[in-house]
Fold:
Amino acid sequence: MEWLKRNQVAAGSIVVLLVAAFIFHAVNENVATSMFKGAWFFAVPLVLGALTGVVGERSGVVNIGIEGQMLVAAFAAFFSAAASGSLVVGILVGMAAGIVMGAFLALTTVKGLMDQIIAGVVINIVATGLTSFFYRPGKVLSSNMPQWDIPLLSQIPLIGDVFFQTGPIALFALLSVPVVHFALFRTRWGLRTRSIGEYPSAADTAGIDVIRMRLVNVTIGGIFAGAAGAFLSMEATAGFERGMTAGRGFLALAILIFGGWRPLRVFAAALFFGFTNALASQLQGVINIPQQFITLLPYLLTLVVLAVAAGRVRAPGAVGQPFVKGEGS
Amino acid sequence: MADPRDEPSGADHGAVTTQPTTEATPPPVVPERGAPPPPTGVLGLLVREQSIIVPLVAVVAALAIGAVLIRAQGVNPTFAYETLFKYSFLTADGLQGTFEKMVPLILCGLAVVIPLRVGLFNIGAQGQLMAGAIAAAATAHAVREAPGVVVAIVAMVAGILAGAMWASIAGALKATRGVHEVISTIMLNSIAAGLIDYLVNGPLKDPSSAYPASFPAPEASRFVPLGVVPIGLPIALVLALAVAWMLRRTTLGFQFETIGRNRHAASYAGIKLSGMIVLAMAIAGGLAGLAGSVEYLGIDPYRYQDGIAGSLGFDGITIALLARSSPLGTIPAALLVGALRAGSSNLMFNTGIQPEIVDMLLAITLLLVSLPIIAKLIFRRHTAKSSALATSWGS
Structure:
C-alpha cells in the first residue's frame, strides 16, 4: 500500500498499459500476440545489454563497449556450440566471453585508469576485428534452441504467449531483471555498489574496497552481455554474421539511460522500444513506408529518447570518473 | 591514463603530495623516495619523444602479433609482410592505391582529432563521410550539364556541407541536451546508412546499373591522378597542415584547446561552450564529408554504391589515436593504414590470407596504442602525463 501511494504514476501506467494490451488482444488476437511477441523478441538482447550497463554504471564505470562484448559473445557462443554440438556449452562459452570482455574493461579502466569512453570504443573496434578475422562461413548448429512452455504461466492469455513460451535465454533475461533490481536496492552488495558509483571516496572512508568492488562488478556484469550475444547468434537466429549486433549495444545504452539506471524501468523501456519496432513493421503493410525507414526507426528513436530523457534522469554521481585512493573528489 | 583533470582543485593538491609514483613530471619538489632523477643522454631523448615512440612500438608489436596469426594460417609471416608492403609501396598500382586510401584516411583522422582536442569523441566519421558522398552524388547529377570543374566544386561543397550538417546534429544534441556524442554519432551512422540505402534504391538510383548505385559522376568532373598521385592527396595534406595551424595559432584553436583541457575554466573565461561544441563537430563533419565527395569523384566506379565508405571512418579513429591527436601525425598514420588496406587484397591473392587480417592488425594496434601499459613498461616512472590520449567528458 505504501508502495502504491509513492508510485501512483508508475502503477497507474502499468495498469492502463495492461488494460490497453488486453483490449487490443480481445479485438484482434493474432495480431496482438504476434506484435507483443515481436516486441519482447526485439527487447531481449537490449534488456540483457542494459543490465550489463546497470551493474557497471551503478559502480561508476561507463561501458560503451557493450556492443563489442555482445559481438564477441555471439561469436564465441555460436562457434563453440557448432564445434561441440552442445547448446549448453555454447551458452556457457558466450557468457564466459562476456565476462572476459568485462574483465578487460575493468582492468584497463579501473586498474589502468584508461579513459572509460576510449576503452569502450577500443573494445568495440577490437571485437569487430577479432570476429571478422576468425569468422568461418558454413558452420551450423546441430540442433535448434528448444522452446519451453512454462507450466501454468504459459496458460495466461497474452502474457503467457509472449513471455512464457520461450527459449532459455529469453527466460534468463526475464528472470534477471527482478533479481538484479532486488540485489541492487535490497541487499548489502547493492547498497555498496550504489555507494561506490555515487560517492566513491565516502564509500572508501566507510571501509569499502572501491577498486576491488568495481573490478568484480564490471567483470561479472559482462555475463548479461554474454547472454545477449548468445541470444543473437543461437536463439534469435541460428548463425553468426560479421557485425551482427548492428548497434544493439548502443540501443541498450540508450535504454539504460531512458530507464534511469533502474532494472525494472529498463525492462519497461526495452519493451517500449520493441513495441515501437513491432508497430512500425505492422504498419508497413498498411501504409507504404520504404523498408529502410523501418530498419532505421530504432536508431532514430534512440536519439529522440536520449534527447528527451537527458536532464530528466540523473546518472550515478561518479560515473565515468576513475577512483584513485586518497585523491578524493 | 586519464586522471580527473577537469577538477580544478584536484589537480594541484593531489599531484604533489599523495600521488603514488609514475608521474614524475612537473612539480619542482624533491623527487619522492625512489623516483629517479630526470634521465639524460639517449634515455632522456627517448623519454622526451615518447609521443612518437609509443605509437611506433605499438605498431611493431601489433605486426609481431599479426605474424603469429599469419603463421597460424600456415604462411611465412616475413613473406606475407614482404608481399604486402612491396605491393603497397613499390609497385605503381599499389602505390597509387595506397595514396588513394590515404586521402580519406587523413581527412577522417582529422575529423576525429579536432573533436578530441575539444574533449569530444567523434566516432561518426563513417556516417559523415557517407552523407558527404551521397550529397556529392546527388548534386553532381543535378548540375551534370555544367562544365566539369564547376560540377566537381559544387559536389565537393555539397559534400562538405552535408557532412558538417550531419555531424552538427550530434554536436547540437550534446550542447543542448547533453546526449553523449559517442552514442549519437553511432546512431547517426546507422541512420545515414538506412537513408542512403533508400536513396540509392529509389530516387537516386541509376536505372542502367545492375545493383543499387547512384548516377555516375560526369566524365569531365572526375579527378584524374597525376601519375600515381591522386588530386585528393595534396588537398588532404594541405588540410592537415591547415588544421595544425588552426589548432596552434588561431583564437579558435586556442578556444578548442582550452575547452578540452578544462571546460569549467573555459566557460569562466567567456568561451561559449555550446557554440564551440557544434562548431568543432561541424568542422570535423565537413572534413569527413569532403572525404566522401573525393571518394565519389576520384575513385572508380565514380558512383555512390554499397561499400564506398568501407571502414574508412572507423579507421579514422585508429589514425587519430595513433597520431596521439596531432593533426600532422595523421599523415604517417594514414600512410601506414592506407598501405595495409591497399595491399590486403593482393595479399589474399598471393598467400590466401583473408583481407580481414588488416582489420585485426589495426584493432591490435589501436588496443596497444591506447593502453597506457606500453609507455609504463618502457619508461617506468618517466611516463609523461600526456600519455593520456584524451579525456572525453562523461555523459
